[in-house]
Amino acid sequence: MVKYKGVTVWFTGLSGSGKSTIADSLKEKLKSMGIKRVERIDGDVLRKTLCKDLGFTKEDRNTNIERVIFIAKLLTRNDVIVLTSFISPYRKLRNIGKKEIKNFIEVYVKCPLEECIKRDPKGLYKKALNNEIQNFTGISDPYEEPKNPDLILYTDKETVDESVQKVLNIIIEKGYIEI
Ligand code: ADP
Asked: What's residue 20's pLDDT?
């Protein structure tokens, strides 16, 4: 049986960089290893539920992330492996997560803006570039790159499987999963 501890793996990066794709795939991988306590917390899902009262001003984005930190903290201390996928553009809030959550791995999902625009999986960049939506990260709103993340995934160069393996490796290296 695989032994594991609670940890939050915090994926940050531009829209379309691959946060959800990699987190979903990692969840499947962890399940296939017999790890039962895994939770995904996804930006799009939360914005339709717990955070449906919030918009995209700096203040609302920060409130959104504060709520995620609160949930992730409770789950992590109950030995759940938590995979969060939020743009989380502000360094200050990510650093609060790092401080509040005892086991925390910051993963920067790095992808050039031009590539994210090309992918545009939800058609949002097109809208943002046409001024149909405002405060869009990378176009009309800032993204503060992590200065010292635990891991960087280069999703324009790596396959999804390679990125997933890198995240799994660091979780094992840091001792949260024992195999
Ligand atoms: P985010 O959650 O960061 O907004 P998504 O995971 O929703 O991003 O979208 C990323 C898109 O890029 C998906 O359509 C995915 O199939 C595609 N993609 C192409 N190559 C990669 C890669 N190496 N890693 C992750 N996603 C990739």
From this structure: 98
